[in-house]
Fold this protein.
Amino acid sequence: MSSINYNDKIPNNVNLSEDKTLQRALEHWQPNYLQWWNDMGPNGSNQMDVYLRTAVSTTPEGWAHFGHVKMPDYRWGIFLAQAENERKINFGEEKGRAAWQDVPGEHRANLRRIIVTQGDTEPASVEQQRHLGLTAPSQYDMRNLFQINVEEGRHLWAMVYLLHKYFGRDGREEAEALLQRNSGDQDNPRILEAFNEETPDWLAFYMFTYFTDRDGKFQLNALAESGFDPLSRTCRFMLTEEAHHMFVGESGVSRVIARTVEMMRQHGVEDPAQVRALGVIDLQTLQRYLNFHFSVTVDLFGADQSSNAATFYSSGLKGRYEETKRDDDHLLKGQHYRILEVADGKLQEREVPMLNSLNEVLRDDFIRDSIAGIGRWNRVIEKAGLSFRLSAPNKAFNRHIGSFAGHRISPEGRVLSEAEWAANERNWLPSEEDRAWVASLMGRVIEPGKMANWIAPPPMGINKQPIDFEYVRFN
Amino acid sequence: MNAIAPVVLIRQHLIDPEVCIRCNTCEETCPIDAITHDSRNYVVDADICNGCGNCVSPCPTGAIDHWHTLPRAAAYPLAEQFGWDELPPQREIAEPVLEQMEAANEAASDAPDEAVQENAAISVSSSIPPWSAAHPYAHLYTVKNPVVATVAGNYRLTAPDAASDVHHIVLDFGTQMFPILEGQSIGIIPPGLDEHGKPHYMRMYSVASPRGGEREGYNNLALTVKRVAEDHAGRPVRGVASNYLCDLQKGAQVQVAGPFGVNYLMPNHAGSNILMICTGTGSAPMRAMTEHRRRLLASGKPIEGKLMLFFGARNPAELPYFGPLLKLPADFIDMHLAFSRLPDQPKAYVQDKIRAAGPAVAQLLSGDTYLYICGLKGMETGVLAALAEVCAAAGVDWPALQARMVGEGRFHVETY
């Protein structure tokens, strides 16, 4: 049964009202959360009425209710996807046993670590994006940004619920710490590096939501396979919301490309400087942004050889993407996987035990998914009759985690000397000048239906509303 | 059986590959696994999709919400959809096809009606419920997580010598939660595997009993199920779910999903009129709504509103619930029965009865009225033409009225 009691302080479908200890823990945490939202959430937005989607239950009709709300009044709830009857652990040493409804003592530390790492990314992205509302290219985009922000906030709630409910005092302390670390903070940064990078402009935002929220999709999918059933059910529902975030990224970049190629054709220019003179973002700069966000996100999957990943898998805590759709023994002992590494001055494949390579397996799944979307962007360019094509860099390019850290590798996968890298870095990654140029285009457009010059309108509005709908009332 | 093969129009559900971001939400949401993907596209299998619309609101892009009307035989197969970079244009339906359809409509009352597997409605239908509808519960149980109901009764509704075998089946849910409203459906999951070794698909049935239970105060409901013995072309086919249901013994256990449907619901406010048009087992939701109002009347809490029913079958022996219907007083329900196979009488279809009652129908439509159509897809074109005609004759602007009714949750069509 999954209807939500609106009268509860915290809307939920987890029978919160029957668990007084948990309810008090969360009610104590909530004021701190709101304080964090006020301090670190979207800048200058608290008085705006934003056309937002709110989950009120987990059924297909229930989770997408739309209406104008002020973001501090958003009803951040706790929702678990419906339980599957007699769900089993589907992989690892305990495959075939009933899924855990409580945390097994021997896996407590690892599960807590997984949940905290996932939970830490949620508020981090809100912090990274907190100034973007001031330069939104349209009301439609501003609304999408805020939708992502409140849902990342809800994802934080989802992880905090698990910490409070299943990890006692340790869990409460971890939940507090999730509000104390801050993105980019010198003394108390977020756990993962990509979540300490700035999201300074809207092109970076679209690239981030395309690549980094897609990392979220793969991580959540892997956790949705978990033998710890409450984690699995939490992540399954979060994935429904994550889809919107990736949509904003994919369609955002696509609209930037559409506007650029429209202007290139109209004026018959291809040279980046001439393209920039038209006030749109040249495709070469887009490629550099893509290289940056791709490589930073690929790092998020962790070291290519990881005994932790093997442990998480063998103990049934974190599966592979689409674990239950794969045809193998779901134990992976004695199986192998080909990973890439630098040997003899070039990139070479080497066969290693699969269990230790599960980070790499997930990373490769992510890369396949990412590349398919780049192909869809290229179709926009192709349709305009231009020969330029965007591409994903080699997965060894610009890496800071794993065996490639410390190596210099070109987007094509050639191992470089430090001098070669330095000579070409500004061709491959956004330079200060590139970022300054993109920043110079940013400015808030608030008239309903109007778009900034550098981006095309979306093909349709949100929830079947027209594009010139008043998605944000500024009051 | 008419020699002309009926042309069945479907609204094929398609995903726009240009807008879709391949997030997998639709595939995850679909309760009957009609959506699949390859490395390029997400696609909907027209043989499985029942148009329930569960995937529509979770889709972040709107790519999911495309429906092309075309003959079933020309539906886009999966292999073709996998190759698309963009949606094909909506095809014009050729004149000969429409003519063939009309001929097929004639034959339609002979066609078998397997479970309400898909809403094949080709005209628009309200995507919101009446404003005064009770709050429906939906998706409490799924194929993966069904509820087990017990058969409390199963008997034949049609006369022993009638050609069609329609059963009234009562399912009891004991102490398990299964709230249902008139107009909602449930899914029946037949046990066992099909010829490919896969589990059978869930089949949907409209509930024939009102919210208070088939037997008032009991946690049970009724289904109206016609045993399917031949397909739309008259070839012998044994309907998996309908035969399973019709053969169930009292006490047997059935796996059920649902409830389903959040729009095809009845109004509850004083003064609301209900206009019901149905054929065959399409009578199930009409029986449920009528019985709810009858119980209100009996309990002394009547809702001041008119009921009008147009109900078609081949002959009285094949009309489900014929006996009980005739006992309802004329001041409670204005009833028009159409029989297409009475000896020595011209064939009469529901649209003929609508025309005959023209002024009363137009007058009712002009008021606070909620329209429900349910039955074989063959009936739809004729019924809508008749409604347009009687309105025109009464000086009512039918296209405008229909659009208003659709927008206000007052125009509900479900055909199969």
